[in-house]
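Lab channel / #folding
Pinned by the channel admin:
"Please post every new chain as: sequence first, then the structure tokens as a reply. Keep commentary short and put observations after the output so the thread stays searchable."

First post following the new format, from NK:
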Amino acid sequence: MDRQEVINIFAQEMAKTQKKADKFYYKQNDKDMAAYCTDHALVIKDLAVKLGICDEVYIEAYKIYDFRNSGKTGYTLKDGKIVKL
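Reply from TO:
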């Protein structure tokens, strides 16, 4: 397994986890489950930092699911994307 494959796997897991967190946060109003998913995303981030691939993981994850504005005031989940109200 090469470096890019590891980055892609981490990015896919990060995007999937953030998307789940957003569904819980915005659609189901379940802040506890959203926080649980976010905790899982932090584990992925910590591993990526230790491997020295964190920036690359986020770049690839944002291509899959752009979660840069997740949880921010004035944004919501619409059609599977975080959008400004």
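NK: The mean pLDDT is 95.
TO: also worth noting, DSSP finds three helices and two strands in the chain.
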